[in-house]
Design brief:
four-stranded mixed sheet, Jelly Rolls, 12 strands, binds 2-oxoglutaric acid, binds fe (ii) ion
């Protein structure tokens, strides 16, 4: 039994037979061919200790220090314990500008847009890497989780040979609600057909995420839900077509789950213009449009 049955996703308990462990590819970390084959076979590659732990923890401290400034996290910042109150709107009336400045923190960017991360993605992509400039940063409070989705619908105006890297910024144990993958969902062509080419900014008639509860969907399809106890330095590389959401953050200490997701492609391939430049427009509001731009308060809100 790899992980706790105390875990829930969108408030559904995970039956033990559905709880699976991510396949660990760490021993193959220098073998580009095998990692590419794994990405095709599994829809993801999980590597432990791919990044410098010290640098990741420095990024964590940088981000949480900004949240201490606005009263949402208590000292010491590195612990990431939510206060349950926020002075963000009073102190930072331009929420988008504040969030952009947090997402552009030099210690955070050192982890995501330099060094071992770029070397790893260059090996996987077999060429010069072009990361999206936009960075999705997620301090997830207790009571919250991410809905299941294929990333494709949010970033499909460039190449399909694009990878998401989900990076825990600190240790993220199961109880803090890490990312959760729907095993084998990169081969569900009937579902993928409903989302391929779907552009959430052009078609507002339906949501980008999957509305069926994740446990119900996994039971219906006979698959497992995959995650792991994550540590600072680990990375999870995902294709655009593997369904993922997260476990609920049920941290008994009230710790925020901090992670970021960043995107990498080859420099010589077409790129989705919404996510590049100094001030990417994103889905219309740039950094102001993502969940992280909103003040973190105690009220548990789903999704
Ligand atoms: O961190 C999460 O809860 C979701 C992350 C995600 O959707 C992604 O990395 O693409
Ligand atoms: Fe995603």
């Amino acid at each position: 039994m790899p992980w706790s049955t105390e875990a829930t996703s969108l408030e559904q308990p995970i039956p033990p037979e559905l709880a699976g462990e991510l396949r660990d590819s760490t021993p193959l970390r220098n073998d580009g061919d095998t990692l590419r084959a794994r990405l095709a076979d599994d829809g993801y590659v999980f590597l432990r200790g791919a990044l410098n732990r010290h640098d990741v923890l420095a990024a964590r401290e940088e981000v949480f220090s900004r949240l201490v400034e606005v009263g949402e996290v208590r000292e010491p910042a590195i612990d990431g314990i939510a206060t349950g109150v926020s002075r963000r709107e009073a102190l930072q009336p331009d929420l988008g500008a504040f969030w952009k400045s947090v997402c552009n923190g030099p210690k955070l960017r050192r982890v995501t847009h330099a060094g071992p991360m770029l070397d790893l993605m260059a090996m996987i992509l077999e060429g010069t890497v072009r990361p999206f400039d936009f960075l999705w940063l997620r301090p997830v409070p207790p009571g919250r989780a991410s809905a299941f989705h294929y990333d494709h619908v949010y970033m499909n105006r460039g190449t399909d040979t694009l990878y998401t890297v989900w990076t825990p910024l600190g240790d993220v144990p199961i109880e803090d609600g890490p990312i959760l993958l729907m095993e084998g969902s990169h081969r569900w062509n009937d579902l993928i057909d409903q989302y391929r080419g779907f552009d959430v900014d052009k078609d507002k008639s339906r949501p980008g995420h999957v509305t069926m509860e994740p446990v119900t969907l996994a039971q219906e399809r006979g698959c497992r839900l995959l995650t792991s106890d994550f540590h600072a330095g680990d990375v999870l590389i995902m294709s655009m077509f593997i369904l993922h959401g997260s476990l609920d953050n049920r941290s008994p200490e009230g710790r925020l789950r901090l992670s970021c997701d960043t995107r990498y492609q080859r420099a010589d391939e077409p790129i989705d213009a919404r996510w590049i430049g100094d001030d990417p427009i994103g889905h219309g509001k740039g950094y102001g449009g993502v969940g992280g731009a909103q003040p973190i308060t105690a009220a548990p809100i789903r999704r």
